[in-house]
Design brief:
Layout lengths: L10 E2 L3 H31 L6 H4 L4 H15 L1 H8 L1 E4 L3 E6 L5 E6 L5 E5 L2 H6 L1 E7 L7 E7 H18 L5
Antiparallel strand pairs: 1-2, 2-3, 3-4, 5-6, 6-7
Length: about 170
């Protein structure tokens, strides 16, 4: 018996998704480092007795450690995600691949599609990108394609809606 292998979906997301993901990660990192600065200032001012003295003298390390921990998320993850995230829509299936540590391959039959949503957050609008969510009745049936050019997402949502309507009679 031969083993069936999944090939990568045909299309990559738009290259501008790298900048979107970088900005999103940077926003989270800056917020968390800022909270670390506030926490370090509070610890330094109150000097709680349950913390060791050597740590109380180095509270400035808290935001530094947080920043270092976020560094791979800001610098490596967006490029890695771009290399992994792919999508493809055929006449009968929506095929996606995502993830950066663990990979998810998902095939959603077009005949099972219930809704197709195209969304754009503020940052996505700034980069001219959109997200497409293809939903089925299954709890695991939603497929998400993040980082599509807005016109591509619009065209795909319209095409999938038509295809799903045409194939609806086949879905039992």
């Amino acid at each position: 018996m031969s083993q069936v292998r999944l090939r990568p979906p045909a299309h990559r997301v738009d290259r501008r998704a790298i900048w979107l993901w970088t900005l999103q990660a940077l926003t989270g990192a800056i917020t968390t480092v800022g909270l670390g600065c506030v926490g370090a200032a509070v610890i330094s001012a109150t000097r709680p007795g349950w913390l060791p003295e050597w740590l109380l003298d180095r509270t400035w390390l808290l935001p530094v450690v947080i920043g270092v921990l976020f560094l791979p998320e800001v610098t490596i993850a967006p490029v890695w995600r771009y290399r992994v995230h792919r999508w493809e829509v055929s006449a009968d299936v929506v095929y996606t691949r995502a993830g950066w540590f663990s990979r998810t391959w998902q095939l959603v039959p077009v005949a099972r599609v219930q809704t197709v949503d195209r969304t754009q957050g503020l940052l996505e609008r700034l980069f001219g990108l959109a997200t497409l969510r293809v939903t089925t009745a299954s709890h695991a049936g939603s497929s998400l394609i993040v980082g599509l050019r807005d016109p591509v997402a619009t065209e795909l949502s319209e095409t999938l809606a038509v295809q799903a309507g045409e194939l609806r009679d086949d879905a039992t």
